[in-house]
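Q: Got a minute? One more chain.
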Amino acid sequence: MAVKAAIQAPPATLTDLDLVEKTRAGDMRALEALMRRHNRALYRTARAILRDDAEAEDVVQEAYLKAYGALASFRGEAKLSTWLVRITANEALMRRRKNARTAMVVPMDAASGAGEHQWEDPMSEEAGPESDALRGEMRRLLEARIDALPDGYRAVFVLRALEELTVEETAAALDIPEATVRTRYFRARGLLRESLARDVDRSLEDAFSFAGERCDRIVAHVLERIRAGT
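A: Always. Here it is, folded:
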């Protein structure tokens, strides 16, 4: 596949198949547009499997290189995004087996029968520095809890809840039955809700904390006013 630079970056209105054709012709701007379009989904896929930022980045790079080398064989029977996610998932799974990592064990007795609703951010309508900080804390807590999901469930949850792939697309990307996708997704949501509920229960004990600086300040102000005769 000959490599050549394009005069202009391909417009965002081009479809994946349009960009594939341009990339096959050696247009590196088209390849760049494809990567920027799919980077987040592939990174999330690799990160869900490996639970390591740096390794996930390496895997995405390797996946793109493999996809680029196999681009001539891509016929468009499946969506490009599904094809790329599957390559990335396979690469990440091979990396994990190579590293012989031990999966984190989470109790599996909490299955949820809740419906398949997308994850909603309760702060989505708020604005300002305080809500931004709270949203950041919530995001970090959620990421940590997603990381703690069992390996098979984590990837399914990320693709279904975060990337909003359909059951069929997720099954094709991970090469597992659709029934398995549904089961793992429901159980992942149940485990996630359970672990987040435990975090909330622990946090309630410290809510509106009164000891320390606030307590000292109130006591000092009251004593000061008493001494002043007010």
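A: The longest helix spans residues 178-204.
Q: Perfect, thanks.
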